[in-house]
């Protein structure tokens, strides 16, 4: 297999997160051949993380039974503000990076062209290219995870805005004077509907005497926030009314955010993804869609699709591969 594949066939996509580095090797027609996953260990500092990204790429290539010489380009989705022209990560709070020359340092380390973009931008790019065949002229991606991010495709192109930071959908204020957000503001979408926000609300409700089944799922010494989005689904399916109500509230806030984006951009498609949505699609999507239809201005939502992405965990690596392939053609 390795002998027949030429250099131009292989692309590596990397999803760089605060806790994990996921790398995927893609062949022709963006077919995923192999993956590797390792922890980011961001507390060890920038150089150590660059080393771990390089190792993740090499592990994935090795897993696919290829060599690095056959890889034509590497794409990376990084959390935070990114300058895609220079490949610098301007600011990544989860990694504690500022002005990090990721493209330059990885190219030096691996000897392969590297392209860098914001993680939610690449997830949007991946959905646009792979799930919708590049068809929509205007599309918005919303990703509900530990935080909330988004991406904008306008006139068929990823839209970065004046400072290349457009698409910070998680920081639209939906509730004036609402809960404090990690960005310092109050009432942001992220502070109301992210995984962090959902678990914070559950913990507050328990302190006030609320009853939940989640306590039974905790191991020794674990906090509620150590649980995963999938545990919320399990609790709801066992009849946990407290968790159900808080997840429904998060879905309503998401629907309001979707309505704002419909009123603002009028895209053909709004695609939703991220760990929270992947785990709770059945519990959240109907509420999101109904609320979005209610709150969007009469007539503006006609013909607009509001759908859940099917890429799941592979959204970041797929989008990063699309980024790299486009970068080579540019």
Q: What does this 3D model show about the protein?
A:
With 330 residues, the chain is α/β, with parallel strands linked by helices. The protein folds into two domains: 7-112, ATPase, nucleotide binding domain (Nucleotidyltransferase, domain 5); 134-309, Nucleotidyltransferase, domain 5, CATH 3.30.420. Helix content is 40%, strand content 22%. It has helices at 46-63, 102-110, 119-131, 189-193, 195-207, 214-217, 229-237, 241-265, 275-295, 315-329, and strands at residues 10-16, 20-26, 32-39, 71-78, 81-83, 88-92, 97-100, 114-118, 139-144, 148-154, 157-158, 269-273, 305-308. A five-stranded mixed sheet has the order 3-2-1-4-8. A five-stranded mixed sheet has the order 11-10-9-12-13, with helices on both faces. Helix 7 (229-237) crosses helix 9 (275-295). The longest helix is centred in the C-terminal third of the chain and has 25 residues, at 241-265. It is globular. Mean pLDDT is 94; it is low at 1-6.
């Amino acid at each position: 297999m390795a002998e027949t594949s030429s250099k131009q066939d292989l692309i590596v996509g990397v999803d760089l997160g605060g806790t994990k580095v996921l790398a995927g090797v893609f062949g022709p027609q963006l077919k995923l051949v192999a993956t590797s996953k390792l922890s980011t260990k961001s507390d060890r500092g920038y150089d150590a993380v660059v080393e771990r990204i390089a190792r993740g790429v090499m592990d994935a290539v090795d897993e696919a039974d290829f060599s690095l010489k056959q890889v034509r380009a590497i794409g990376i989705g990084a959390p935070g503000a990114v300058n895609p022209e220079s490949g610098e990560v301007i600011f990544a709070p989860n990694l504690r990076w500022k002005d990090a020359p990721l493209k330059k340092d990885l190219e030096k380390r691996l000897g392969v062209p590297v392209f860098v973009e914001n993680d939610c931008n690449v997830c949007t790019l991946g959905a646009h290219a792979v799930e919708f065949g590049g068809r929509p002229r205007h599309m918005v991606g919303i990703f509900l995870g530990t935080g909330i991010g988004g991406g904008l495709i306008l006139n068929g192109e990823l839209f970065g805005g004046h400072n290349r930071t457009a698409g910070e959908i998680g920081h639209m204020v939906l509730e004036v004077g609402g809960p404090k957000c990690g960005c310092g503001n109050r009432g942001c979408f992220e502070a109301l509907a992210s995984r962090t926000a959902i678990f914070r609300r559950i913990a507050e409700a328990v302190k006030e005497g609320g009853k939940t089944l989640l306590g039974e799922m905790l191991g020794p010494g674990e906090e509620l926030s150590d649980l995963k989005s999938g545990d919320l689904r399990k609790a709801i399916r066992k009849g946990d009314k407290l968790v159900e109500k808080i997840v429904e509230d998060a879905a309503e806030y998401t629907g309001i955010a979707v309505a704002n984006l419909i009123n603002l951009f009028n895209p053909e498609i709004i695609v939703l993804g991220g760990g929270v949505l992947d785990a709770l699609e059945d519990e959240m999507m109907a509420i999101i869609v109904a609320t979005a239809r209610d709150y969007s201005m009469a007539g503006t939502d006609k013909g607009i699709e509001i759908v859940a992405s099917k890429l799941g965990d592979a959204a970041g690596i797929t989008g990063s591969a699309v980024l790299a392939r486009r970068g080579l053609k540019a």
